[in-house]
């Protein structure tokens, strides 16, 4: 499964990793990056297309992007950004949904700002040999549709989770959803994940426990990507991912509620 790894682990294993920087291209060029990192800007894989779900890229787009970045099917990937990992998590979830081995996917604990405090950066763009990346989505994924989401609110064994902020939630959320702003799981000082026990306490306070099936949504599936990676890292076994999120829900003219 996709996990979260420390800066020290990345530094110790850098020779066997393909490190992916998902910040804007100008940030990669002008502000330096992790040594050996390749640039795959967030906007380059957030296109959405007629032959994919939600904001996912098409198989062809994804394959071309990873091929150009020198990624092969057996590459072990670490992704990072400069926003507490939320954009990098979206890259990793996209990779998982489109068939990359989840065990070979890692999110840097922290982000570029925290990395550069204690580790070297580079202004050099590494030489990359293009690959022929083959996209092979798995038969089963954590993706669920709007009907499954609607039913989750009435299932005692499930918890429907809105990962947006409190003001967005108050303006309108899927009936029965609990609020968990994804940033509640982030330590503002380290810019990485809260300590394990602290993270589990935050989740339990929101009614999110490992014994339940967890169904996640936000607006466009970016923020739930971070929460998905965190929950899987913490050992939650059944975490479902509503790729369509509120964008699709509202397009289908489904109901919203505003009370807590």
Care to describe what's here?
The protein has 10 helices and 9 strands. The chain has 260 residues and is of the alpha/beta class. The chain folds into 2 domains: 3-118, Rhodanese-like domain (Oxidized Rhodanese, domain 1); 146-251, Oxidized Rhodanese, domain 1. Helix 7 (166-171) links the parallel strand 6 (158-162) and strand 7 (178-179). It is globular and about 50 Å long. The two termini are 33 Å apart. 40% of the residues are buried. The model has no long low-confidence stretch (mean pLDDT 95).
CATH class of the largest domain: Alpha Beta
Order of helices and strands: EHEHEHEHEHHEHEHEHEH
Alpha-carbon distance between the termini? 33 Å
Helix fraction by DSSP (H/I, runs of at least 4): 25-40%
Question: Could you give the order of strands across the largest sheet?
Answer: 1-5-4-2-3
What is the overall number of helices? 10
Structural class: alpha/beta
Rounded mean pLDDT score: 95
How many individual β-strands? 9
CATH superfamily of the largest domain: Rhodanese-like domain
Identify low-pLDDT runs: none
| Strand proportion | 5-15%
Shape: globular
Helix and strand layout, with pairings?
Blueprint: E1 3-5, H1 7-13, E2 17-21, H2 25-30, E3 38-39, H3 59-68, E4 76-80, H4 86-97, E5 105-108, H5 112-118, H6 146-152, E6 158-162, H7 166-171, E7 178-179, H8 196-205, E8 213-217, H9 223-233, E9 239-241, H10 245-251
Parallel strand pairs: 1-5, 2-3, 2-4, 4-5, 6-7, 6-8, 8-9
Helix pairs in contact: 4-9
Keywords:
9 strands; 13% strand; 2 domains; Oxidized Rhodanese, domain 1; single chain; alpha/beta; globular; 4-stranded parallel sheet; 260 residues; 5-stranded parallel sheet
């Amino acid at each position: 499964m996709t996990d979260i790894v420390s800066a020290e682990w990345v530094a110790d294993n850098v020779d066997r990793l393909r490190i992916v920087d998902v910040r804007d291209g100008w940030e990669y060029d002008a502000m330096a990056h992790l040594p050996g990192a390749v640039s795959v800007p967030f906007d380059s894989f957030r296109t959405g297309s007629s032959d994919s779900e939600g904001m996912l890229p098409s198989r062809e787009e994804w394959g071309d992007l990873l091929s150009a970045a020198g990624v092969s099917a057996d590459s072990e990937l670490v992704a990072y950004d400069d926003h507490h990992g939320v954009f990098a998590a979206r890259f990793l979830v996209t990779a998982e949904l489109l068939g990359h081995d989840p065990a070979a996917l890692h999110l840097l604990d922290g982000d570029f700002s925290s990395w550069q405090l204690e580790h070297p950066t580079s202004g050099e763009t590494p030489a990359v040999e293009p690959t022929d990346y083959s996209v092979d989505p798995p038969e089963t994924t954590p993706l669920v549709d709007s009907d499954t989401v609607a039913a989750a609110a009435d299932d005692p064994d499930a918890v429907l989770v809105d990962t947006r902020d409190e003001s967005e939630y108050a303006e309108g959320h899927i009936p029965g959803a609990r609020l968990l702003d994804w940033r509640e799981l982030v330590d503002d000082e380290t810019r990485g994940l809260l300590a394990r026990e602290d993270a589990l306490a935050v989740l339990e306070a929101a009614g999110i426990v490992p014994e339940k099936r967890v169904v996640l949504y936000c607006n466009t599936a970016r923020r739930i990507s971070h929460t998905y990676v965190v929950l899987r890292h913490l050992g939650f076994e059944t975490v479902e991912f509503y790729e369509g999120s509120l964008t699709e829900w509202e397009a289908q003219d489904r109901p919203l509620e505003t009370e807590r």
